Amino acid sequence: MCSVKEAYDRRPVCVNIGCNKPVHCSGKTSTGLPIWRPYCGRCHQAVGGRGTYAEGVEPIKKTYCENVDGRFGFDCTATIIDSCQLDLDHIDGDHYNNVPENIQTICKNCHSVKTKVNGDSRSYSTIKKSS
């Protein structure tokens, strides 16, 4: 497990294309490690409709659950009426890996199933040191 200082030293950058700002901390784990949002503060405000994206920034979040293709072994049938029903998920469960290829937009129902099946919540609290 890494220290709090190491976690801040490894702080990822915003997942949105064209934004290279450090991500925003949304809280702490029970061990005191930071929980990173996938966005910087400005992009987080823009996602919620309380601000605008910086010039040249392209949001990565889609308007639908990507599990409509059955990537989790079942097809998502959720009706999405608002973006608050969608989460950005780190495919490999590593919240430090904010590259677009590791991010998928999924509804909260599919996210819960994926997290339970993959054990993502258990691995997040025991972040390992980078090699």
The shape is globular
Strand order of the largest sheet: 1-2
Distance between the termini: 12 Å
Query: How helix-rich are the residues, as a percent range?
Result: 10-25%
Strand content: 5-15%
Order of helices and strands: HEEHEEHH
Largest sheet: 2 strands, antiparallel
Can you summarize this structure?
With 131 residues, the chain is an alpha+beta fold. The protein contains 4 helices and 4 strands, in the order αββαββαα. The strands form 2 sheets. The protein has a two-stranded antiparallel sheet with strand order 1-2.
Folded structure, characterized:
By secondary structure, this protein is of the alpha+beta class. It has two domains: 1-60, no CATH class; 61-120, no CATH class. It has helices at 4-9, 41-47, 108-118, 120-124; strands at residues 25-28, 34-36, 86-90, 103-107. It has a two-stranded antiparallel sheet. A two-stranded antiparallel ribbon has the order 3-4. A hairpin with a 5-residue loop joins strand 1 (25-28) and strand 2. The longest helix has 11 residues, at 108-118.
Keywords for this structure?
alpha+beta; single chain; 4 strands; disordered C terminus; two-stranded antiparallel ribbon; 13% strand; 2 domains; 22% helix
